Amino acid sequence: MKRIALSFISLFFVLLAIAQNTKDSLKFTTILENGITSIKNQNRSGTCWDYATIAFIESELLRKTGKTYNLSEMFVANKDYMDCAEYHVRLHGDSKFSEGGSADDVFSVISRHGICPEDAMAKPGEMMGDTLANFTEFFSVLEPYVKAVANIKAKRLSPQWRVGMQSILDAYLGKCPESFMYEGKEYTPKSFAESLNINKDDYISITSFMHHPFYEWFVIEAPYKWRPCRSYNIPYEEMMETIDHALQQGYTVAWGGDVSGNGFDRKGLAIAGTPEQVPSQGLRQVTFDNWQSTYDHVMLIFGIAKDQNGREYYMVKNSWGDAGNYHGIWYMTKTYIAIYTTYIFLNKEALPKSISDKMQ
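Structure (tokenized):
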């Protein structure tokens, strides 16, 4: 019995080694590649939602104008954490307050508060004497403060908690400018956002789950999506068709999904098992319902590539700096995306007509 067990263990490690060697020897050929701006580094901050959506907006601006913008993620974080705190306090603590968020948050911040270029804000980490964002101390201070306010034993809440909250945000993230100069012209965050012509209503969130009817809207039950913004629910095959169609039309796609395991590695690859699982609507639902697939990361899909065996991958811009074997780019199989996507976010004009017609 011991020999049989040892044989199985040995076989397992042999297969694992073969799989690893196969992954390490993959060679990619780009089929389609849409424009992106430089890769940023969120460092020790739970702001992938911020960096990825800003990257998406910068790609949209690049596509529409041919101009490269560098927008401030910390402006968005400063405004969004206040929005999230106000929501949390209004619900007396019955919501999620954390570093996390979603693509909806960035567009909501820009719509309400505007945006500024990177150079108009303190650089991420600068307030901590660092070169990159580090939220370890920041959120250790901020999170207990917000939860204390939300659960305070008082009959009446004073407005001063917002003053204290804003002081913490400004101390760690930098103060948002009331006005700034950009290319020889003075702007406010609101007027700068207007100059970019980024309209929240031009964009849409798409998802695919069976616990709500297809071709209807619902709010995805994911902890980090604290804003009750709706996504349009379609079968997963149509979701995949939407990604391909958008890329082929020159658009990029913001992607939110699971990277906590299941074949996602730190070297720049995401392959759903060896051999790969077969995607299905039922498998998507089961992995979501049993927490095997969670919403824990946001990135930007901008292209398609294939390996030497003909298998196709999405080219995905991450926000971990010059990480992995491909300098911040991940190659994620279409199967992986089909199974582990929570939502995609894209320009409505990038939708296939067959899908946009169903929304009428």
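The longest helix spans residues 2-24. DSSP finds eleven helices and twelve strands in the chain.
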